[in-house]
Amino acid sequence: MPRYKTVEQVLSLMKDRTRVRNIGIIAHVDHGKTTTSDTLLAAAGIISPKVAGEALALDYLNVEQQRGITVKAANISLYHEVEGKGYVINLIDTPGHVDFSGRVTRSLRVLDGSIVVVDAVEGIMTQTETVLRQSLEERVRPILFINKVDRLVKELKLSPQEMLNRLLDIIRQFNNLIDMYGEPEFKEKWMINPQAGNVIFGSAKDKWGFSLPMAQKKGINMKHVIDAYTSSDKSKVEELASQVPIHEALLDAAIKFVPNPIEAQKYRIPKIWKGSLDSEVAKAMLNADPNGPIVFMITDMKVDPHAGLVATGRVFSGTLRAGEELWLVNAKTSQRVLQVSLYMGPTRELAEEIPAGNIAAVLGLDRARSGETALSVAFKDVQGSFERLHYISEPVVTIA
Ligand code: GDP
């Protein structure tokens, strides 16, 4: 299986929107969000930066070492194959964790699926509840990753039955939250079920993980996990990581359970777009139409010391190209796109165009701020913008 893809190959996949998934990782602090995204960045099929006209295979940890920069938890487009078919998974950085006010992370808005990481020992915590609730309110479909399963063996020394009970308990609590916060039309479908494959058990630190269907296919079970951690032979854990690599488990599940942008935008746009759904702009978004007016929702503005302000966001409709004049709804001004690129971890790679349903990084929109909606200038009079984000406060803890 070719691990490395060129920018051109990825861009051509991005045009087939059934092959695109937009996901993010969310978690209670310390449950393993950073370790999980690092593992994905390091192990998944990374797109190769072009060096002197040649596609050069690099993994991100190498890039990090070579350039002395921290790549961790960046936006990145990953390549992954399932049953011989290639997919582009845009892994979007969600800022650390909910901050003290429990603020909705704007980045959730551009996701269609979330990987919710839960520490097997700590179980569901306050911030797990907050981030899961935010995900459901944005109609972002959750997948559960029960991380740090090694701790159940090494620290708690649980028997297989006790382990099972604890894992089932976490799953039950997770489904209770989906039941509580999910909208009626989604919650039944979105409840997780280990047999179906949308629960991953594993250890991000030790790089192994599996869903039940994957474990069955590969002849692995919890007994192997217990053996690996109770054995004096340290290579047993590495063996597990090569038999059931965590990135494979997570990315397979994302491809299977997270809707593609065409499916997702049909039910997400009515929820997040404030304005008539009959306008040409809204219809184009409902269909993630690459030929419709451009609607680019900017979730992040960052300074690149060499290039200036970079606007990152999701193209909900149309196709972004350099030279397009866009109307910034909040700034009430228009600006021209100077350059369009896609994210490959530490680097932005120039792209001729980024079609609807994908994540783009854009130069030229320096009047924009996070949360801005940029529209094709011909549609500046459309009545509508993205709904303001709700802020969910975490329960206030009072000390008696
Ligand atoms: P974040 O705050 O959610 O981003 O969590 P981190 O990824 O920074 O992880 C928090 C701590 O948990 C770090 O010390 C990690 O090394 C550790 N950790 C992450 N994954 C695992 C795991 O699978 N098993 C164990 N035992 N520790 C882990």
UniProtKB/TrEMBL annotation:
GO cellular component terms listed in the entry, alphabetical order: cytosol; ribonucleoprotein complex
Query: In this entry, which stretches build a coiled coil?
Result: none
Q: What is its main location?
A: cytoplasm
Chain ranges of the Tr-type G domain: 18-234
Keywords from the UniProt entry: Cytoplasm, Elongation factor, GTP-binding, Nucleotide-binding, Protein biosynthesis
Its annotated compartments are:
Cytoplasm
Q: State the source organism's domain of life.
A: Archaea
Residues that coordinate or bind GTP: 27-34, 93-97, 147-150
**Record GO terms (molecular function):** GTP binding; GTPase activity; translation elongation factor activity
> What functional role does this protein have?
Catalyzes the GTP-dependent ribosomal translocation step during translation elongation. During this step, the ribosome changes from the pre-translocational (PRE) to the post-translocational (POST) state as the newly formed A-site-bound peptidyl-tRNA and P-site-bound deacylated tRNA move to the P and E sites, respectively. Catalyzes the coordinated movement of the two tRNA molecules, the mRNA and conformational changes in the ribosome.
**Family per UniProt?**
Belongs to the TRAFAC class translation factor GTPase superfamily. Classic translation factor GTPase family. EF-G/EF-2 subfamily.
Write down what this protein is called. Elongation factor 2
Gene transcribed to yield this protein: fusA
Q: Which residues of the full protein are shown?
A: 1 to 400 of 736
